[in-house]
Amino acid sequence: MVSPLLPYANALVKTMTQGTVSVVNGRPTVSAGTVYVVKCYIKRQQYSGVTSGSKRLPLESQLEGRMLPGVSGDQFYYRGYALQKFVLPNNVNWLGDLSSYTFTNITSQEAFLLPGKEVEFKFGNDAAMKAVIQRSSGVFGGDGIDEIIYPGIGGVEIQLTGSEAQN
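RESULT FIELD:
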């Protein structure tokens, strides 16, 4: 079943699995794994207690906000559903036209979307940014009621924090 949220998908997440570990010239080396692009329906959450809805970077407590001279930005919390995935072929721009590729539905928590994973994230018309997955299972950890909700929604809950930096 196709997700009822799919027509409203407004974000892409690019992530990669870990490849194999081998020893090259006496040093452990990890090869590139499979690259996935995930279609998501996501909403930017507003932080409570601040007027802009974001967390300023660098924080005022970090050298009075001068920790990163010449750079400032905002960190937002994003919450929604990971709906579909596909394996990105080599030399294909993940931000280009992907309409000719076949996406498959996400029906459970994926190993390449586990919490703590650093990903590339494109939200709406905003510039692509680095993000960190905070959660990729539902309120009940993907169990119980989540097992009823996921098939109806046609995706798995995902939460990310993404930072937008300006020079």
